[in-house]
């Protein structure tokens, strides 16, 4: 049985795109008979990341990570994130001459730049240095691959992401109170890098539904609660039921590398109104399953005329089975 080691600074109880991809891949790889071993922050002393208290960073991890890798003796090592554990695993692999792969999941430099100006270039350079040592760096879209290669990243390969089509299917009779139609929904993290405030400011008919949580939830609900319906974080069938009440998904983020929520909305038959940026432009077909525009109000209203069936068909192009197969084929096996 092949033993695959995943090293990640993002892990439960965090809920984000990285942890959700990990959950899907780990479940599928185990079902195929592979042994998955995880190195994650819960195995170390940690400290909260400033501005994101739910994200814990491992302290003094370098020596212990090296020891763990030696004891685990994996057949393949994949470094998921560029945090303390990722850097520790990278150092251990380089010191012992062990090949490894990485994944560029998040435009972290853009997240930081939103809060702390002036750090964009040095952080981007640090990210490039981190991934330069990998035999392969995985990304989810052609747009991201092209952008990274144009700035000096090497050995970039595409591993597409997916959606659980059995879960994300529109419920024709969700057990929820009806909302005034049409219903425009935002679901995702309530944090500056996701630009939820842009959605909250939009002038739209019917209901504006906000699904999600994050560091800005209290502030945003206090400021925009009168014209928006905040219902907190939802997951699983409960999330699907709320999406089934909705008519259009409005996605204001400009920092995505993919956007899992886009394909989840499409799977539920929701057309997507988004900006013409990386992530949405890799998924949406203009005028078919969504509209890309600088004017999200106009795009959202135009989406009301699109076919839920076409949206579902687009989501069917993204499967976790295909994603896991591509991931496994891009790993570098030590033995």
UniProtKB/TrEMBL annotation:
All copies of the Glycosyltransferase subfamily 4-like N-terminal domain together span 15-166
**InterPro entries assigned to the protein according to its UniProt record, in alphabetical order:** Glyco_trans_1, Glyco_trans_4-like_N, Glycosyltransferase_grp1
Query: Which keywords does this chain's UniProt record carry?
Result: Glycosyltransferase, Transferase
List, alphabetically, the Pfam families matched: Glyco_transf_4, Glycos_transf_1
Respond yes or no to whether keyword Manganese is given for this record.
no
All copies of domain Glycosyl transferase family, residue ranges: 177-296
Claim: Transferase is one of the keywords in the record: yes
Mind listing the GO molecular function terms for this protein? glycosyltransferase activity
User: PANTHER family recorded for this chain?
Assistant: SULFOQUINOVOSYL TRANSFERASE SQD2
Q: What is this protein called?
A: Alpha-mannosyltransferase
> What organism is recorded for this protein?
Candidatus Kaiserbacteria bacterium CG08_land_8_20_14_0_20_50_21
Show the taxonomic lineage: Bacteria, Candidatus Kaiseribacteriota
């Amino acid at each position: 049985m092949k033993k695959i080691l995943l090293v990640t600074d993002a892990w439960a109880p965090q809920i984000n795109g990285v942890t959700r991809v990990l959950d899907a891949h780990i479940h599928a790889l185990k079902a195929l008979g592979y042994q998955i071993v995880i190195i994650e922050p819960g195995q170390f002393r940690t400290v909260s990341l400033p501005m994101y208290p739910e994200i814990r960073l491992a302290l003094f991890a370098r020596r212990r990570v090296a020891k763990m890798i030696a004891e685990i003796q994996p057949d393949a090592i994949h470094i998921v994130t560029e945090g303390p554990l990722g850097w520790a695993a990278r150092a251990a692999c380089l010191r012992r001459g062990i090949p490894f792969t990485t994944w560029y999941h998040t435009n972290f430099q853009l997240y930081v730049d939103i809060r702390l100006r002036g750090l964009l270039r040095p952080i981007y350079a640090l990210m490039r240095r981190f991934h330069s040592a990998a035999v392969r760096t995985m990304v989810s879209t052609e747009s991201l691959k092209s952008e990274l290669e144009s700035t000096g990243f090497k050995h970039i390969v595409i591993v597409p992401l997916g959606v659980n089509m059995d879960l994300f299917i529109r419920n024709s009779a969700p057990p929820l109170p009806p909302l005034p139609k049409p219903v425009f929904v935002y679901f995702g993290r309530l944090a500056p890098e996701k630009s939820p405030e842009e959605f909250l400011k939009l002038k739209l008919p019917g209901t504006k539904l906000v699904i999600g949580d994050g560091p800005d939830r209290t502030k945003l609900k206090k400021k925009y609660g009168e014209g928006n319906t905040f219902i907190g974080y939802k997951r699983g069938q409960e999330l699907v039921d709320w999406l089934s009440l909705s008519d259009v998904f409005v996605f204001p983020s400009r920092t995505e590398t993919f956007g899992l929520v886009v394909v989840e909305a499409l799977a539920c038959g929701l057309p997507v109104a988004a900006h013409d940026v990386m992530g949405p432009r890799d998924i949406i077909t203009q005028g078919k399953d969504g509209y890309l525009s600088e004017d999200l109000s106009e795009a959202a209203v135009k989406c009301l005329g699109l076919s839920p069936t076409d949206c579902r068909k687009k989501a069917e192009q993204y499967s976790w089975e295909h994603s896991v197969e591509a991931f496994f084929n891009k790993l570098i096996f030590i033995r």
